[in-house]
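Exercise 7b. Backbone tokens:
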């Protein structure tokens, strides 16, 4: 396993550096969508389709989170990661067969390399499944939370924030469905009831890199597995998006329109469901100094069939181009979409198996004698 500084680690990468753009990625105004006329909503939906079929990332403004909520989240994270290690290890992910909880720096593997961050993973709380097959049934279970004595208000804020971000995700699915020529509720209706959907939230802290080792990767180059990822970078730079134009490729730094903007990218579940018309975009996090962020992975029910729903000439050229992109990505990324990933739960199993190979070998082994 490699502990590596960030560099030109994607094989076809030619350059990286400071963005020359005023803002990046492109902006989608959810407030304008909500208040718009039919014609204005169609225009916003068409813009969303164009963005997600090319860049693969956008930033949301007027997203509906109440004023002050994002600052509240980052203030909580500052207190969370300042707690004694002993307190944080009380909810250690390593003790959870459901892959939820706290982990220290260099505990997660991305694209074969250790990530330089500590984090807490909270997933949708579900009743524990008695089924062992398919493997994703074993991921159903409870998250671990700090008590109010350890960090007042932590669980309440975490649960409320997940509900709020799911609401933003549902609104964006309506925009995307409209842009793709589908009924507005088409994608939302496929998700399942909220209690069935597996959402994942990461509270993330990347400590300042040791002297002489700047920059480091808080997370190495990868593609996300779910439907949509909603990220709050707030005032912390470091998120970079791979851009590929003709034979040139580079990582473009994210430049927010405002501190409260939410950066959104599509994941491999949506890529599969659209038959590669929308392709999950490679990205990474590079940091020179201490950094905090929050990432919400908006996911559907685990048994959602990912057979493509887009068919016909309207989509064919885009799907063929997307398939070529996906094939090229598979040569350099462990997280590229696999033909074996047929339902949403397969993608989550693949993610945790790559990220935590030892823990996955213990809890997600196909060996009937493996310890549970």
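Sequence design result:
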């Amino acid at each position: 396993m490699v502990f590596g500084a960030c560099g030109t680690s994607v094989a076809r990468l030619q350059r990286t550096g400071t963005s020359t753009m005023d803002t990046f990625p492109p902006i989608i105004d959810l407030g304008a969508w909500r208040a718009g006329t039919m014609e204005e909503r169609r225009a916003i939906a068409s813009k969303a389709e164009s963005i997600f079929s090319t860049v693969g990332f956008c930033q949301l403004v007027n997203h509906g989170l109440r004023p002050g909520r994002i600052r509240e989240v980052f203030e909580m994270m500052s207190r969370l990661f300042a707690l004694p290690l002993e307190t944080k290890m009380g909810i250690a992910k390593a003790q959870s067969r459901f892959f939820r909880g706290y982990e220290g720096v260099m505990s997660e593997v991305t694209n074969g390399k250790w990530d330089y961050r500590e984090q807490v993973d909270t997933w949708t709380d579900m009743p524990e499944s008695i089924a062992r097959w398919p493997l994703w049934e074993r991921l159903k279970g409870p998250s671990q939370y700090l008590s109010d004595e350890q960090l007042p208000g932590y669980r309440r804020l975490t649960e409320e924030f997940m509900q709020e971000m799911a609401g933003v995700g549902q609104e964006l699915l309506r925009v995307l469905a409209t842009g793709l020529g589908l009924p507005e509720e088409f994608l939302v209706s496929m998700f399942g009831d909220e209690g069935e959907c597996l959402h994942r939230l990461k509270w993330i802290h990347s400590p300042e890199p040791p002297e002489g080792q700047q920059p480091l990767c808080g997370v190495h180059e990868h593609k996300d597995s779910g439907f949509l990822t909603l990220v709050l970078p707030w005032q912390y730079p470091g998120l970079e998006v791979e851009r590929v134009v003709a034979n040139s490729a580079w990582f473009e730094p994210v430049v927010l329109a405002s501190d409260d903007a939410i950066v959104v990218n599509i994941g491999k579940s949506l890529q599969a469901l659209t038959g590669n018309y929308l392709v999950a975009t490679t990205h990474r996090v590079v940091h020179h100094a201490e950094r905090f962020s929050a990432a919400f992975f908006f996911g559907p029910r685990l048994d959602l069939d990912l057979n493509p729903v887009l068919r016909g000439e309207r989509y064919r050229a885009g799907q063929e181009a997307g398939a070529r992109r996906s094939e090229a990505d598979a040569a350099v990324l462990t997280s590229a979409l696999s033909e074996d990933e047929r339902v949403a739960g397969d993608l989550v199993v693949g993610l945790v198996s790559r990220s935590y190979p030892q823990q996955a070998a213990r809890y997600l082994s196909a060996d009937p004698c493996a310890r549970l």
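Instructor comment: The chain is about 30% helix and 20% strand. The longest strand covers residues 291-298.
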